[in-house]
Amino acid sequence: MDLREAISSRRSIRSFSGEQVDRPTIDRVLQDANRAPSAGNLQARDFIVVTEAGVKKKIAEAALNQDFIAEAPVVVVVCANKERSRAKYRRRGANLYSILDAALAAQNLMLSCTNEGLGSCYVGAFNEKNVRKILAIPKTAVPVGIIPIGHPDENPIPTDRLPIERIVHREEW
After folding, report:
1. pLDDT tens digits, residue range 68-92?
2. Which of 160, 159, 155, 158 shows the shortest CA–CA distance to 15?
3. If you placed Cys at 150, which of 16, 93, 100, 104 could pair as Cys (CB 3.0 to 4.6 Å)?
C-alpha cells in the first residue's frame, strides 16, 4: 500500500473482530510511530501497550464509557513526555512540542495500522486523571490519546472533508 492509499483508506474503526493481533505486528506499528518527526529529535512521546482485558475495561470507562475500546485486542495510550522536551525547550517544549510529538506519532501509528490491514481509532475524550491512575503515568508525562487497535469488523464510508479552497490560505489569511 502506498502512502496516499493509506491516508485515503484510513477510517476510525470502532468495531473489531475477535482475531488477535500478534506482537511483531504491534512492534512494527510502534516502530513506525516512533519514526514520526519530533522537536529537536527528542522523541518526547511514550507508548503504553495494553492487552489485559480488565485494564482495557477500566480505560474504556475512563474514556466516558466508550466500550469499543475494551473490545479491541490491543490498546495503545500515547503519552507526551513533557520532561524530555522541557529539558531543551523549557515551557514551550513541555506544553506544546511534547504534545505535537505525541500527536505526530499517533498519526504514524494509525497509518501504519491501516498499512497492516488493522483498524484503529483516535480517542481524545477521556478523564485524564483516571487514565493516569489506571496506567501509573508519572506527572512528567500526559496521556494524549487512546488508540484501540484490531482487525476491523466494519467498513465505514469516508467522511466528508472541507473543500481545500475553504481551508488553504495563500500569502495571508
Report:
1. 999 999 999 999 999 999 999 999 9
2. 155
3. 16
Report the interhelical angle of 98-115 vs 82-92 (nearest 10°): 130
Average pLDDT, integer, range 102-117: 98
**Domains of the chain by residue range:** 3-167
Sign of the CA dihedral 36, 90, 122, 139? Answer: positive
* CB contact set of 45 (below 8 Å; sequence gap of 6+): 33, 34, 36, 38, 78, 79, 80, 81, 98, 101, 102, 105, 144
Q: Is 17 helix (H, G, I), strand (E, B) or coil?
A: coil
Query: Is the overall model pTM greater than 0.85, yes or no?
Result: yes
